[in-house]
């Protein structure tokens, strides 16, 4: 009831596309009734969780906030959802987001914009904006989002909460609508590190339905968080990241001051030369749009999805009409860009080059983690902006500069809500560790919070 009241009182924020009110109440009552006989409680017993509308929940709507899937209903549970349910969680609803998880402000949804609870005139970030606002505004205890290039960490930064993107392959993508399959990961929003660690423990691990999931055993993240002794860490930051011209001066100043407090606390903190920084955003947008153009080819209006009412005998026209009317502008822009970079005349100039950049980044990352436990940076170069203020796609893409690195290299990243900007908006620090090293990521984060 607490969270349902939160949702009812904040409908103007538009965080949810659909709320499963009766069902959630029934499940809560059922869990309550079962309580007296329980020997030990399941790890997420009664925990109220919202899911981004790109994650399948059987017999519930699933649209990726797109017109093309308006009436689609999930046929099965995503592995992450199945594990939440098995752990006793209550799923309270599906959350608004940018269409097919493409965007940074939650202004690209067929279900309307989402507003930041800290200032409803500002964007919540994206693409998992609804999931972030739902936690920020106490409409659920945890949310599941998806992070292809920052879509969990960036809205967490804008909303003043924690946002974790696990390593690529830590959490099964089965039942997650694909945007760019070699980048996508399900991530977690929460207010407390312990909650996030516990949820990760529940959803992570081997899955026969996703061959890219790691078979490495899942550590007891939440327990490790309790026992890990504080120790000095070796922490790197990228020189070029803090010198970047797009970085807001107040964020720069507070991040530098934070780095000094870390040194004072006994950690070894060092600037590392990172001359590839300017290439991460172009490489990300070439590779993700290429993967998206292929992944989204399945929405043709035949098997499922929106079908245009305009009659035609020509199959190509039929596809064109369904897709032109069903997809929004940003998604179309990316399908076209992705098709272009994959086209025979341009493949080597763009796609192959971007793959080379990705490989160089991975090599560089491996070298850095040979010497350091973690890399820190601002999560986003500027705080949440006003709704409608930014319309130039290139400008919006460039703001992904600190987050896309983790997806290009497959490493885990977390945004921690540590600071307030002079505008009054919160902003965060991002921590990244080597691949599959969520234990260090979480314990280091704990020393920061
Ligand atoms: N802003 C990035 C993009 O639009 C991030 C998206 C995401 O992580 N899903 O692609």
Automatic annotation (TrEMBL):
<feature type="active site" description="Charge relay system">
    <location>
        <position position="52"/>
    </location>
</feature>
<dbReference type="GO" id="GO:0005524">
    <property type="term" value="F:ATP binding"/>
</dbReference>
<protein>
    <recommendedName>
        <fullName>Glutamyl-tRNA(Gln) amidotransferase subunit A</fullName>
        <ecNumber>6.3.5.7</ecNumber>
    </recommendedName>
</protein>
<dbReference type="GO" id="GO:0030956">
    <property type="term" value="C:glutamyl-tRNA(Gln) amidotransferase complex"/>
</dbReference>
<keyword id="KW-0547">Nucleotide-binding</keyword>
<comment type="subunit">
    <text>Heterotrimer of A, B and C subunits.</text>
</comment>
<dbReference type="Pfam" id="PF01425">
    <property type="entry name" value="Amidase"/>
</dbReference>
<dbReference type="GO" id="GO:0050567">
    <property type="term" value="F:glutaminyl-tRNA synthase (glutamine-hydrolyzing) activity"/>
</dbReference>
<dbReference type="GO" id="GO:0016740">
    <property type="term" value="F:transferase activity"/>
</dbReference>
<dbReference type="InterPro" id="IPR036928">
    <property type="entry name" value="AS_sf"/>
</dbReference>
<keyword id="KW-0436">Ligase</keyword>
<keyword id="KW-0808">Transferase</keyword>
<dbReference type="InterPro" id="IPR023631">
    <property type="entry name" value="Amidase_dom"/>
</dbReference>
<dbReference type="GO" id="GO:0006412">
    <property type="term" value="P:translation"/>
</dbReference>
<feature type="active site" description="Acyl-ester intermediate">
    <location>
        <position position="151"/>
    </location>
</feature>
<feature type="domain" description="Amidase">
    <location>
        <begin position="1"/>
        <end position="442"/>
    </location>
</feature>
<comment type="function">
    <text>Allows the formation of correctly charged Gln-tRNA(Gln) through the transamidation of misacylated Glu-tRNA(Gln) in organisms which lack glutaminyl-tRNA synthetase. The reaction takes place in the presence of glutamine and ATP through an activated gamma-phospho-Glu-tRNA(Gln).</text>
</comment>
<keyword id="KW-0067">ATP-binding</keyword>
<feature type="active site" description="Charge relay system">
    <location>
        <position position="127"/>
    </location>
</feature>
<keyword id="KW-0648">Protein biosynthesis</keyword>
<dbReference type="InterPro" id="IPR000120">
    <property type="entry name" value="Amidase"/>
</dbReference>
<dbReference type="InterPro" id="IPR004412">
    <property type="entry name" value="GatA"/>
</dbReference>
<comment type="similarity">
    <text>Belongs to the amidase family. GatA subfamily.</text>
</comment>
């Amino acid at each position: 009831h607490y969270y349902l009241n939160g949702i009812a009182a904040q409908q103007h924020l538009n965080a949810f596309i659909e709320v499963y009110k009766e069902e959630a109440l029934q499940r809560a009552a059922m869990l309550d009734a079962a309580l007296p006989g329980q020997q030990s409680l399941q790890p997420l017993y009664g925990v109220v969780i919202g899911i981004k509308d790109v994650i399948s929940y059987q017999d519930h709507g699933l649209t990726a906030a797109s017109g093309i899937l308006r009436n689609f209903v999930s046929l099965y549970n995503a592995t992450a959802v199945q594990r939440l349910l098995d752990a006793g969680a209550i799923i309270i609803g599906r959350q608004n987001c940018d269409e097919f998880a493409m965007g940074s402000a939650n202004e690209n949804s067929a279900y309307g914009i989402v507003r930041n609870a800290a200032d409803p005139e500002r964007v919540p970030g994206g693409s998992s904006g609804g999931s972030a606002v739902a936690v920020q505004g106490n409409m659920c205890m945890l949310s599941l989002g998806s992070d292809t290039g920052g879509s969990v960490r960036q809205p967490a930064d804008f909303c003043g909460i924690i946002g974790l993107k696990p390593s690529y392959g830590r959490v099964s993508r089965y039942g997650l609508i694909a945007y760019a399959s070699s980048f996508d990961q399900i991530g977690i929003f929460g207010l407390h590190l312990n909650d996030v660690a516990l949820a990760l423990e529940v959803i992570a691990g081997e899955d026969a339905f996703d061959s890219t999931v790691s078979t490495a055993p899942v550590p007891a993240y939440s327990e490790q968080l309790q026992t890990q002794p504080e120790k000095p860490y070796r922490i790197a930051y990228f020189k070029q990241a803090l010198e970047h011209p797009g970085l807001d001066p107040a964020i720069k100043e507070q991040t530098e001051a934070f780095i000094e407090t870390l040194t004072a606390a006994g950690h070894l903190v060092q600037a590392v030369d990172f001359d590839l920084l300017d290439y991460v955003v172009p490489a990300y947008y070439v590779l993700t749009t290429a993967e998206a153009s292929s992944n989204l080819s399945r929405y043709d209006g035949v098997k499922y999805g929106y079908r245009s009412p305009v009659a035609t005998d020509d199959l190509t026209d039929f596809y064109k009409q369904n897709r032109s009317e069903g997809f929004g502008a940003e998604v179309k822009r990316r399908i076209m860009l992705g098709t272009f970079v994959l086209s025979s005349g341009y493949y080597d100039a763009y796609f192959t080059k971007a793959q080379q950049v990705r490989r160089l980044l991975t090599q560089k990352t491996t070298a850095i983690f040979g010497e350091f436990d973690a890399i820190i940076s601002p999560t986003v170069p500027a705080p949440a902006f006003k709704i409608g203020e930014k319309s130039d796609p290139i400008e919006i893409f460039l703001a992904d500069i600190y987050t896309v690195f983790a997806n290009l290299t497959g490493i885990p990243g977390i945004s921690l809500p540590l600071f307030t900007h002079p505008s009054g908006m919160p902003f965060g620090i991002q921590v990244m560790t080597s691949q599959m090293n969520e234990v260090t990521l979480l314990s280091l984060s704990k020393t920061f919070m």
